[in-house]
Amino acid sequence: MKRGLMITVLIMFVLFLAGCGVNRTISVTSGANDYVGKDYEDVEKELSGLGFLNITASGLQDLDSSSDSQQGVVTAITIADLNNFNAGDSFPSIVPIIINYHSVKEINPPSAGDDIQKQDHTILADLFKNAGFKNVKTEEVEDLNPDLYDEEFRNEVIIDGHSSFSKIDTFPIDSEVKVICHKPYKKYTVSIHADCRGNLLFDKYDVNISVGNEAVKRLPHGESADYEYKLKKGKYTITFTDAEDSSVERKEEIDVYSDMKVGYKLSCNSSSIDVNTEYTERDIELEKGQIQMSEGSSDFSGNYIEVIDKLKGIGFNNIKIKPIYDIYFGVFAKEGDTSSVSINGNKDFKRGDIFSSQDEVIVAYHSSYTNDPEYIAGQMIQAQEAAEQAAAEEASKAEKDRLEALKGKTVAEAIKTVGEMGYTAKYKNRVGTDMTPYAEEYGDCKVTKVDVSSQNKSVDVYFITAQEEADMEVREKLEAKLDLTAAWQCVDRHGKNVYPYGFKLHYLGRLNEAVDENTWFLRAECTIENAFGNKRKGICDATVTGTTDHPLVVSFECY
């Protein structure tokens, strides 16, 4: 009955539109079976492009995951209730077309977006899981300001990015559901002591002190003050600024995760503010065997025995002493004065630093150099060593002179002399490569240096080939004409002209070669900066000619 009525209404509607000139006949380009297996959006687009006006896409909600390969795939299509039409069949443009396709099952949320504050967030998450949602995550965040919120918690549910929804809304069962429990964060007491050193004449300005977004405090020049803040956990920037010139400032960072006390020593200069952190003391529960220092390293002075007693009283039980034999006249220190105290290797510990009672503590103290056992032993053997050394030097001098006289002679002559004297020798080329196995092949080469070890009866003989000697002569002539330092400076100036926003040569590992008697080839790593402050590293190659007083860059390339 209802179906007949609907068809009658549809026919009347078609006739009405036809009378208005809207309806027209369109031929389909594919049959019903041809559309099955395609993406429903492509099918819908194709039919719409042909001119059909009454197209409905209907998801079957028969899949469990959006990642299923069947998502969006057409299962059936009807045109005017016909599911077996063929390509070329014609239909009115307003005829109803229904495209059925695979889609993910959709379900309703168990709670509305504004009805989630009455339950624990884990129970709330279970409600969504029990409702059928498969991708439910929970998260606890301490982000509520306790000064503004007095609730114990505040829940938030986000479904696929939507935090506002009702119980009649539907979502895919694999939607990401995030149940977030917002809680008030804890505030810690941060006490800051700032001590500004007073200047006599200049730079006697006050200092503005700001911590994060807290109110700015003004510290008068030459005075000290204490400030207290209530801050949540996190890292904060403390800014010290010239109260008269905001461009003069210094920033320090503190990590707040407990009640803490921090002390700063300030020094005002014309273009900067020097800030020294004197101590950082935290109000935390120490583990067994831990010690929090109530004083810094500079507070441990006086006789070393008194210092040791003080350290034992604090709780350290692994204390060692170290005499430093540096008293010669007794003007700057006296016997037993403490030189330094190191804890676990740290000589610059501060108030608030935490150590273990088992950490090694070394107390160093000043003592006369005459107490040094090495000095005493040295005095006893010094004369004997001097006599033995003189005898050894005299005995080896003749041999050394004879061997060093080989400089300028041929390798062949060196081989003969070394053999006669019973020395062992290594024959090395200009760059120090050991060429001993091939020494005889270089018999005509010139000896340039002889290093003699009389004690080991060994000698290193350095030689140079005729070609290398010629190259050295070219280099010497070039160095006499154009100093290498002047050449590098010329390249540096040229680079700064080419790259005005920043150019720097790195001389470590640089290379320089004499191309001829007039030209240097230079290579070095460099850093180039552009107008936006971006830096890049590269290699700079350049050739330089001219003289020391007037060097000239011939070529310049950075890559």
Secondary-structure map:
Layout: H1 2-20, E1 25-27, H2 32-35, H3 40-50, E2 55-59, E3 74-79, E4 90-92, E5 97-101, E6 106-107, H4 121-131, E7 135-144, E8 154-159, E9 171-172, E10 176-184, E11 187-197, E12 207-211, E13 217-219, E14 224-232, E15 234-242, E16 245-256, E17 259-268, E18 273-283, E19 290-292, H5 304-314, E20 319-327, E21 338-343, E22 354-356, E23 361-368, H6 373-404, H7 411-421, E24 424-428, E25 446-453, E26 458-464, H8 466-481, H9 484-498, E27 503-516, E28 519-529, E29 535-546, E30 551-558
Parallel strand pairs: 2-5, 7-10, 11-17, 20-23, 24-26
Antiparallel strand pairs: 1-4, 3-5, 6-9, 8-10, 11-14, 12-13, 12-15, 15-16, 17-18, 19-22, 21-23, 25-26, 27-28, 28-29, 29-30
Written description of the protein model:
The protein is built from nine helices and 30 strands. With 559 residues, the protein is α+β, with helices and mostly antiparallel strands. It has six domains: 25-101, 2-Layer Sandwich (Trypsin Inhibitor V, Chain A); 106-184; 187-283, Immunoglobulin-like (Sandwich), CATH 2.60.40; 290-371, Trypsin Inhibitor V, Chain A, CATH 3.30.10.20; 379-464, no CATH class; 470-558, Roll (Nuclear Transport Factor 2, Chain: A). The strands form ten sheets. It has a four-stranded mixed sheet, with no helix packed on it. A four-stranded antiparallel sheet has the order 13-12-15-16, with no helix packed on it. The model is unreliable at 1-21 (pLDDT under 50).
